[in-house]
Design brief:
Layout lengths: L6 E4 L5 H12 L3 E6 L3 H13 L4 E5 L5 H15 L4 E4 L14 H29 L3 E6 L12 H22 L3 E8 L8 H4 L2 H9 L9 H12 L10 E4 L3 H4 L4
Parallel strand pairs: 1-2, 1-4, 2-3, 4-5, 5-6, 6-7
Helix pairs in contact: 1-2, 1-8, 3-4, 4-5
């Protein structure tokens, strides 16, 4: 198993892409901390799936927008498993709205969860990696919209664009400590956040027309890429984004 003996944190791991990542990392041999904010029962289901397959899982409630909570997430992981090797910043929210309708509260919450949260989680993880002295891996679940505009969702796009620049800027800083940092940019993935679009035949058809592989992705597509990036097989990969989008970025002119 590629991650045997490793310890990982996956934020927002109770649902969708996050739960698939947690299960896949455990399948590859990692002990996994399942961070959740409100969906405790769903997190318990993920933990049960991992332990039922012989893996090790820890559930921790943490709001990634709160710096103290993020620090506690790392501390509880180390207390339970003895170390930390992998951080997957997956937790995120999306609040589509036109510029004229966005409130200050909406703006601040979006940025807090999608940009501030990952930043301080990276800080807490990096401090631990440096203390351990054996490197580490940070994987940020970004979006095709770190590059590709999405009308009516400017704050989300700005947060993901900021995450792209954080990754590119921090990569050379962290490399001296053998810490790799990579973004994963999903395209159209069948998750609860996309339910409305996927349940609308016209919207789904229009979306599929933009995807060269002509299918909607699933969380396991993203989880497989994350597992590879977290492994030593990707030891020469840092400071970039891997798009998991069926070719959407190429079709839409984003690359």
């Amino acid at each position: 198993m590629a991650l045997n003996g490793k310890v990982a944190i996956v934020t927002g791991a109770s649902l969708g892409i996050g739960s698939a990542i947690a299960v896949r990392l455990a399948r590859e041999g990692a002990s996994v901390t399942i961070d959740y904010h409100t969906h405790r029962d769903a997190a318990g289901t993920v933990a049960g799936q991992i332990s039922g397959a012989g893996g090790r899982a820890l559930m921790v409630q943490a709001d990634v927008a709160d710096v103290t909570s993020v620090g506690n997430l790392v501390n509880q992981t180390v207390a339970a498993f003895g170390r930390l090797d992998i951080l997957v910043n997956n937790a995120g929210i999306e609040q589509p709205a036109r510029l004229v309708d966005v409130t200050e509260e909406m703006f601040e919450r979006q940025i807090a969860v999608d940009l501030k949260g990952p930043y301080f989680a990276m800080q807490a993880a990096a401090r631990r990696f440096i203390t351990q002295g054996s490197g580490g891996v940070i994987i940020n679940i970004s979006s095709v919209h770190e590059d590709l505009p999405m009308v009516g969702n400017a704050v989300y796009c700005a947060a993901k664009g900021g995450l792209r620049m954080l990754t590119r800027t921090l990569a050379p800083e962290l490399a001296r400590n053998q810490i790799r940092i990579v973004n994963v940019g999903p395209g159209a993935i069948a998750t609860p956040i996309n339910t409305a679009t996927l349940n609308d035949p016209q919207k789904k058809a229009a979306l599929l027309a933009e995807i060269p592989l002509a299918r909607i992705g699933n969380p396991d597509d993203v989880a497989a890429a994350v597992a590879w990036l977290a492994s030593d097989d990707a030891s020469y990969v840092t400071g970039t984004t891997l798009f998991i989008d069926g070719g959407l970025m190429v079709s839409a002119g984003g690359l």
